Amino acid sequence: MASVGLYKALVDLRQAKDEKGISHAGFHGLGGKALSLFQIMRESGVKPDAVTFVAILLACRYAGMIDQDMLGRAGRVIEAYEFVKNLGNVAGIWGSLLGACRIHGELELGEVVAKKLFTLNEGECGRVWMECGKAWGTRG
User: Fold this and answer.
1) Is 33's pLDDT higher than 60?
2) Average pLDDT of the chain?
3) Sign of the CA dihedral 57, 63, 69, 73?
4) Hey, where are the domains in the chain?
5) CB 3.0-4.6 Å disulfide test: which of 6, 15, 101, 122 passes with 106?
6) What's the mean pLDDT in 66-84?
7) Range 110-117 average pLDDT
8) Mean pLDDT of the region 79-85
9) What's 46's DSSP letter?
10) Which residue has the higher pLDDT, 135 or 63?
11) pTM
C-alpha cells in the first residue's frame, strides 16, 4: 500500500509542476484539487507564473468557489489579502488587490499592498502611484 501512496504523491507532484494539471482539474469542476496541486507546486519550489494564476482563477470560477476567486470584487478585501499573501510575489495579483482596496475604501490595507507592490516593481512604479492617487484622491 505504501507504493500506491508514493505513486499518488509523485503523480500529484508531476501534475502540480504543470499548470495544465491545474487547468484540467478546474475545467472538470475540481477546484479543490486544482488548489491542492497549486499548493504542492509551491511547496516543491516551482515558481508559479501568470499562466498558473490564470489557471487557478479559472479553476475556482468553474468550481463556483467565490471564496477563493473573487474576494476582492465581492468586497471581502481583507480575506483577499490573506489569500494573496499565500500566493507569493506576483505583481499582477497584488495590483488587482490594490484596485480592490481602492474600490472598497480599504485605504489602510491599500497602503500595505502598495508597499508590497513597490518592492515587487522597483522599475515600474507608475501604475502603483496611479492607483494610490486614485484611492487617496477620493479621501475627503
Assistant:
1) yes
2) 75
3) positive
4) 1-69, 75-140
5) 101
6) 76
7) 86
8) 85
9) P
10) 63
11) 0.53
Q: Which of the four pLDDT bands, split at 50, 70 and 90, describes residue 109?
A: very high
Residue carrying C-alpha cell 490594490: 98
Q: How far apart are CA 119 and CA 139, in angstroms?
A: 25
Cell of 118: 513597490
Name the phi and psi angles at 48, rounded to 5.
Answer: -70, 145
Cα–Cα dist 35/59, whole Å: 8
Q: Residues of 109-120 as b/e, b for ≥16 C-beta within 10 angstroms? A: bbeebbebbeeb
Number of residues in the chain: 140
Which stretch of DSSP H or E encloses residue 45?
Answer: none
- What is each CA distance from 86 to 11, 21, 130, in whole angstroms? 23, 20, 25
Distances in whole angstroms, Cα of residue 39 to Cα of each of 16, 76, 80: 8, 22, 17
